[in-house]
Amino acid sequence: MRTYAGHSTAEASNALYRNNLAKGQTGLSVAFDLPTQTGYDPDHILARGEVGRVGVPVSHLGDMRRLFQDIPLEQMNTSMTINATAMWLLAMYQVVAEEQGADITRLQGTTQNDIVKEYLSRGTHVFPPGPSLRLTTDMICYTVNNIPKWNPINICSYHLQEAGATPVQEIAYAMSTAIAVLDSVFASGQIPDDRRGDVVARISFFVNAGVRFIEEMCKMRAFGRIWDKITRERYGIENAKQRRFRYGVQVNSLGLTEAQPENNVQRIVLEMLGVTLSKDARARAVQLPAWNEALGLPRPWDQQWSLRIQQVLALESDLLEYEDIFAGSHVIEAKVDSLVEECLTEIDRIQEMGGALAAVESGYLKSELVASHALRRARIESGEEKIVGVNSYEATEPSPLTSDLDTAIMTVDPAVEARVVAALGEWRTTREQANERQGMGDPLVFPSSAQALDMLQDAARSDENLMEATLECVRAGVTTGEWSHALREVFGEFRAPTGVSSAPVAVTAEPGTPLALVREKVRRTADELGSGRLRLLVGKPGLDGHSNGAEQIAVRARDAGFEVVYQGIRLTPEQIVDAALAEDVHCVGLSILSGSHSELVPDVLVRLREAGAPELPVIVGGIIPSADATELKRAGVAAVFTPKDFGITEIIGRIVDEIRTANKLDPLEVLA
Questions:
Q1: pLDDT by residue (tens digit) across 289-316?
Q2: Are 132 and 115 in contact (CB under 8 A)?
Q3: What 3-state class would DSSP assign to 177?
Q4: Closest CA to 154 of 312, 319, 2, 320
Q5: Is 540 a catalytic residue?
């Protein structure tokens, strides 16, 4: 039983973890902030406004020590949601455990370490697919040989569903990732053939459970059946225990609503039942989101509520006392058979392309997800897919839970970032002289930070396992940004395909439809401005890699007749303003879900004014509390959109209105 947690600083997160453990939580699930996830130190330009926002900043060994102070790691089961920098964070975790006197062979936990879904949905990738797979391979081989109880990869279909994946896509893409990883591990020569089963037994999965109860339960049965088939037939694993499909669950956050957020509680319960009610497909670990995640960062009380939901189910109900109550159901079996057949067909298609990494590089997987998500959004907007409180039963009594929205979520003190940056500077200044920062031993035994980084780059240019060099970097006091930068110099970086240009039209524009009316507004406005076509820049400033919303806005704006400029994630305000001016756009749309809007959006506005374009309208979308939205509008933002604004076509129409207002054009009579 876990809650996904971490924020502000290592010290604050440590206090939160110890408090949660005292309440009955049975494992830790660490959320790292975006700079840590993407390999930047807190003082990097791209980290501005992101430090401590969506997780805890861990920049070096000292931070990791403070994060787990007074928590005996040998007795703990720790899940770390980290991917591109997974090797680095595991190395720091191991060194802290060693300093505690732990036997590292007894360490238990999981590093997510699934880079493929980062290219497709979460956006915290750093290196190109080939080097990324090498980091994953080396880490798996190291843990199997040295930390045998550790799960070195948690293949993550969770985020695929968040990005719009159907159950078939979710299973097929996750299994294709597993095949790519296992093929690489076994081809590396680091694992003897007689230990293949040990590798397969350490592969775990992290799955999403949506609100469609029957479909989700059948999905889990199909997952297990396909995994058993692949590991037995492709890799020759005879031991049934080693072939077991081991998975944990975070139930769906995509379906949580800002409108009537109290409805999220029953959604969370129903989603949890989908992965617990059937014994033969029951999750090994469950973590639940909080009811108010669509509003902002949950408070400790909100996380406690989610933990109590699990405890009531496990301790008060009789759910765990019976054999599988769905065994023998012809309805369930038929659905599972159908899913298995469709998934195997899609897996074969991906293998024919050259496997998961080739399908990433070609853009196939990303474009398929963008298309699926667009179709889902269209079903919601048309009312075909009902969401209570959003597009049906919208009338509501005032909720006491949200009567004071500004206290219904947790906020991170903006001063935290400055303190973290200052502490990082002190660490860099003193690390070479402090013995305890070089492995608690004689400093002459250990390399300096510069020497350790040279060793890391030498290892990266060879074919040796990178884990040992990474451990030396940890002990030498190297920082997260320095470790990543050293590997960037060897491996390069990667900008993943956006999937926008190849996404099909999801919403019809027949005469009289909302999209047809917006198209007419776009056309008439462009004619009045004499600009040929209206141009919209969709920008993702900072490190927030949740690009689903930005992609859907870009696709719908394209379908409405806009020329769309969308360069993907991870841009500085300076780059966004430069692109807006170079492309001569009529509107800038910024998408931020990480909480960094208060820092980054005003920066864009200031830069536009300084560049002589103060009249260019800027709109913002994301998880933005109402008080922040008011401040952004006061600073000059034309419009702010949050999850309650689910009608994308309507949003595009409002963008046209803002363009007309900015250019002093009369309102149009065409209603969208």
A1: 899 888 877 888 888 899 899 999 999 9
A2: yes
A3: helix
A4: 2
A5: yes
Task: State the helix-helix crossing angle for 648-662 and 514-529, rounded to 10 degrees.
Answer: 20
* Residue 450: both structure tokens together: 């510069």
* Cα Rg, the chain, nearest whole Å: 25
Q: What is the DSSP string of 459-512?
A: HHHSSS-SHHHHHHHHHTT--HHHHHHHHHHHH---------TTPPP-S---TT
Structure tokens at 57: 């900043």
Given a cut of 50, whether residue 435 has pLDDT beyond it is no
Which residue type is seen at 569? I
Q: Which residue has the higher pLDDT, 503 or 156?
A: 156
Q: CB of 208 within 8 A of CB of 286?
A: no
Q: Which residue in the list 4, 17, 93, 142 is annotated as catalytic? A: 4
Say if residues 216 and 332 touch (Cβ distance below 8 Å).
Answer: no
Catalytic site residue from 93, 119, 142, 158:
158
Number of neighbouring beta carbons within 10 Å of residue 669: 6
- Asked about 546 being catalytic, the answer comes back as yes
Contacts of 479 (CB under 8 A, 6+ apart): 41, 59, 60, 424, 427, 428
Buried b (16+ CB within 10 A) or exposed e, 38-73: bbbbbbbebbbbbbbbbbbbbbbbbbbbbbbeebeb
Say if pTM beats, i.e. exceeds, 0.85.
yes
SS3 646: coil
